[in-house]
Predict the structure.
Amino acid sequence: MLTDRQLLILQVIIDDFIRYGQPVGSRTLSKKDKITFSSATIRNEMADLEELGYIEKTHISSGRVPSEKGYRYYVDHLLSPERLTPDDMRKIKSIFAERIYELEKIVQKSAQILSDLTSYTSIVLGPAVKDNRLKRLQIIPLNRETAVAIIVTDTGHVENRMITLPASVEASDLEKMVNILNERLVGVSIAELKDKIYREVANVLRTHIYSYDSMLKTIAETLDIPQEEKMFFAGKTNMLIQPEFNDIEKIRSLMAMIEQEKDFYRLLRQNSKKGIQVTIGRENQLSGMENCSLITATYSAGEEQLGTIAILGPTRMEYSRVIAILQRVASDLSTALTDWYQNS
Amino acid sequence: MLTDRQLLILQVIIDDFIRYGQPVGSRTLSKKDKITFSSATIRNEMADLEELGYIEKTHISSGRVPSEKGYRYYVDHLLSPERLTPDDMRKIKSIFAERIYELEKIVQKSAQILSDLTSYTSIVLGPAVKDNRLKRLQIIPLNRETAVAIIVTDTGHVENRMITLPASVEASDLEKMVNILNERLVGVSIAELKDKIYREVANVLRTHIYSYDSMLKTIAETLDIPQEEKMFFAGKTNMLIQPEFNDIEKIRSLMAMIEQEKDFYRLLRQNSKKGIQVTIGRENQLSGMENCSLITATYSAGEEQLGTIAILGPTRMEYSRVIAILQRVASDLSTALTDWYQNS
DNA sequence: TGTTAGCACTCACATACATCGAGTGCTAAA
DNA sequence: TTTAGCACTCGATGTATGTGAGTGCTAACA
């Protein structure tokens, strides 16, 4: 167990390193207000902290740098909660300045403001479509072979895709079918649509529609809506400003990782537990993340979790500030969206 | 005017530099097969070429490097057309392997393949929506206040947006209005929609619709569809591999430029004249492009120009290869889309 | 017994300097 | 007109050396 003095030293080392990005030595520490004992004492304590794995040296006679374990302890136990400045608050409020029409717009704007505020990269996931309910299905034939199918949800989200019409299908049949589908499926949640078709609607269709067989598959495919949340990035190049990324190789692997959206999406989904989550360096099991930390928060409407907002920064990230900002944005976003869904 | 021997030397210098990225000296040149005279002669010729501004030294006793003027001359007069390898051809064909359903998909895939083939960054613009014609307009009320308006074009492109309904509007009126709009506007090109409403449809609406005044503006806004082509990037990080970008500052300004999509879009639009266009280094009047060249080609369906495909690479780019690839992809894309539009 | 002053030691980093080699321009001979 | 030869330039590379911020350890101190 760490003594109070060791904790103090660990905290001051990390605070200083986050601020200046330079290894912290015993002399520097001894000059801090909070620290009342000499550099020699500090050296002894630091040797212990190093042995316990909370700090590291970059080389044998250098100052100390926090290890991942150190950051972890810092985040879990030592974080001093930070108050947002009025300016920060103003910027966050500006996300909601205009009336919300489209969810995606506000989500995108959140990402933008988050990266502005933090100078790191921000990622916003969501909002999930799967719990939305079908408002209207429409199939609009373009020519003999193809049509575009449009699905509108109760939240105003629109999905569309091209479909190939079976050669045998009649325009009147198509219309009839769309009517039946709307009658039966409006109000059903998007995730259940496909299932419901086979369970309940297939029979009705069979009795009414001539080219039933060939259409059923087409329709089922049509309603098989991708349920992955969209991912919005902002400030992708902000990481280039961070001094730890002045090495081309690091930049390359980081950028490659970000561009490889699939893996990154998976990583974010792993962090979608409610509340603030911090994963530090190699805790993120994704190559390219060695020098990065990811902080995520979830937002929701009412009880239902809608998505995730996240900040990707160097491990030497301003954790307390970023957490404060994320908490605030997530909560404001949740409030706004709860309102929005209630009025829908 | 340059002599034949000067042209030969210029060509060999640029070919060599494009290949190896190192300043080219007289000794290196004298060993090339094509060159039958001594290094001393070459030195004399190079001094002349330098005086004329076609090549430069990186420092006083270094080999020569092509200047922008040199590249320009090379591209305009010295380019030896390159044949694509079977492997390249195969990859290009793979763009069109699947049946085309959605234009965007194929455009995106083109961008992907282009960046794969070249190891540079590719950008694809388009296809433009403005010459498409309205197939169907739909307004689906979500609640008392808001509705989602959906516009489908004859090419199957779907645009949607949220609108606020005037408080006074009746559901039956809304339906009536949508019917009128569809009757009058189907087949009208997207670019002319807004105009046509005021010129021809407004009067009809006035006589049939109760809350005419409040609706008209909403409708006009709804139909004011953004006519900018979408921009698809692929291989954004490919430039990081190029040895000329081993300088952090260069990477930063390049990445910042790419992320700043607006300006880049404008730049691309400037290069939208038909056929292949090459702009070298500072010919692109956009900061961050100093060390880059942009090669663009346009694609079309029938007579109508639809968009642009482009490659962004270092000034030391494999011009002839990239041009050959772009030409091929643009032409295949045009053929495919011409077909596609004919069947629509 | 915990704390501190003092000291020898380490190592990254900066500076200075020598060396090397690919390249140049110029001159004079072929 | 071409080319061989030569002195010269300059970036790159390697080596020596000094500086300073940092360390660990020991012994004296409160």
